[in-house]
């Protein structure tokens, strides 16, 4: 049984980098983090659509600069570097460790398929103490297309030597779960916060509230 997870926002809390630096960012740290994440994804999608691929770390850095500017801050290279360093050591969600342990006990082969480039993934999961949980940390960097482009999901099929129907994919990003279902994976939307369905036109997505529900 192959279970493939998205990384950022699914296993790792992308907002923990800004939260950890609240004292430096001030009371609007959450707004900074939200703009950072939104621009990071926007830049990835535009890069794919325009055929101008750049790796995810480059886009993450660029998105942070934009977020700081849009929230009224002057350029501050020291602050940017501190936040980027924090992004390499993101906090796992509370259900991740027990959820992965339970799946491993059932004999599942666990992997990651992420927009993050290989160096980002190795560093992030090493810092989180979870690297040994995964048979593979797969990056769309090999396809030079970001999810939800179909070529990005093909990376998992080819690396695992498994057909899409035999891969269970899990993401807390609704657009990602929808893209995986469209590609042919058995797709699960991890909806920890009880949001309303965002892509009802995409069939084949199963909603779960926690990794412990798999």
Widest sheet: strand ordering? 5-4-1-6-7-8
Strand content: 5-15%
What order do the SSEs take from the amino end to the carboxyl end, as H and E?
EEHHHHHEHEHEHEHEE
**Mean of all residue-level pLDDT scores:** 97
Quaternary state of this entry equals single chain
Radius of gyration: 17 Å
Specify the overall morphology.
globular
Based on the coordinates given, report the CATH architecture of the largest domain. 3-Layer(aba) Sandwich
- Total helices: the number is 9
Q: Specify the structural class.
A: alpha/beta
CATH superfamily of the largest domain: HAD superfamily/HAD-like
Number of beta-strand segments: 8
What is the CATH topology of the largest domain? Rossmann fold
Q: What is the total domain count? A: 2
* Portion of residues within helices: 40-55%
Main CATH class of the largest domain: Alpha Beta
Distance N to C terminus: 12 Å
Major β-sheet profile: 6 strands, parallel
- Unreliable parts: none
